[in-house]
Specification:
eight-stranded parallel sheet; alpha/beta; 8 strands
């Protein structure tokens, strides 16, 4: 059984649309702790992280949204991840996807300390491979993978002392990619699978191939699950809805395969905006997906009425 460490990240500085700061409370109301303990795991809720005090240097582009807060969050979350990983499996309850700048930075430092490679699975509608200079919106929730792979331009942010190699990253469910990101991504060895390829071959094949690579390398696996990986008809509580996302069955299969592999060492649950939800529906979906990653199977799944 796993010792799960719940970490609340009430973070809304990665983009301009507000509401994700309520995400950690929504996960708690949806009984994520009970879902995990019912599966036999131990759970420790360490409460909510607060960002460090930070200042943004003048060398960052002026159009960035809340860069000082982003630097502070990145520093605090990297430290939190480093402290939590030796004790168990941290689940970072966001919060916007900008939190992954810090969670992956901390996970990479821990993996280096353990002498093991870090791998990242990124189920998301977007690549989030921008830099502060390339993002047109100025929203840094679109830049985590750019940062943790060592792209330049993140002035004032903590040093990425252990960049995640491109070949250690797998993106699943893409369907909204900025041209600059697409061009840069195609020059890398990052594995990426858009919804067309998933429609054609299914989600199991590319995921199984990636998990096999992680296992052969004795790698640590960080999973960063964005609500918008799912089709908005199932999960409406996200500010970046893109139609044509993964089905509930595809998402649960992905999480069940992750569980079967035994490789996951840390987990992000991001971009849940309860202000946009329908009677807690998306929060419950995300809790159910998390439960699948920790051993719940179809025969264990309760029937719920949302009336």
């Amino acid at each position: 059984m796993t010792h799960c460490i719940l970490v609340g990240v009430p973070m809304d500085s990665g983009k301009r649309r507000q509401g994700c700061r309520m995400g950690p409370d929504a996960y708690r109301v949806a009984e994520i702790e009970r879902a995990l303990t019912d599966l036999g795991h131990t759970v420790e809720d360490i409460g909510n992280v607060e960002p460090d005090r930070a200042e943004a240097p003048d060398t960052l582009p002026s159009h960035l949204h809340a860069p000082a807060q982003m630097i502070g969050w990145t520093s605090a979350l990297a430290r939190t991840a480093e402290e939590a990983l030796p004790r168990g499996l941290p689940i970072f309850m966001g919060g916007d996807h900008g939190l992954a700048l810090g969670t992956i930075l901390g996970a990479a430092r821990h993996a280096a300390h353990e002498g093991r490679p870090l791998f990242v699975l990124w189920p998301d509608a977007h690549t989030d491979f921008h830099t502060p200079q390339s993002t047109g919106s100025g929203n840094l929730h679109g830049a985590p993978l750019g940062y943790v792979t060592g792209r330049t331009g993140f002035h004032g942010f903590p040093e990425v002392d252990h960049p995640v190699p491109h070949e250690n990253i797998c993106l699943l469910g893409l369907r909204s990619v900025d041209p600059e990101e697409r061009d840069e991504l195609q020059r890398t060895s990052i594995r990426y699978h858009d919804m067309r390829s998933i429609d054609e071959t299914g989600i199991a094949r590319p995921l199984a191939d990636f998990l096999e690579v992680v296992a052969r390398a004795n790698g640590m696996l960080h999973v960063s699950l964005d609500v918008d990986f799912l089709d908005p008809s199932f999960a409406p509580a996200v500010g970046t809805t893109v139609p044509g996302g993964a089905t509930m069955r595809e998402a649960h299969l992905m999480m069940e395969m992750i569980c079967d592999s035994g490789l996951m060492t840390s987990l992000d649950l991001v971009e849940l905006n309860p202000f946009l939800d329908e009677r807690g529906r998306t929060a419950q979906v995300m809790v159910d997906l998390a439960a699948s990653a920790f051993g719940r199977r179809i025969f264990d799944r309760p029937t719920r009425a949302y009336s």
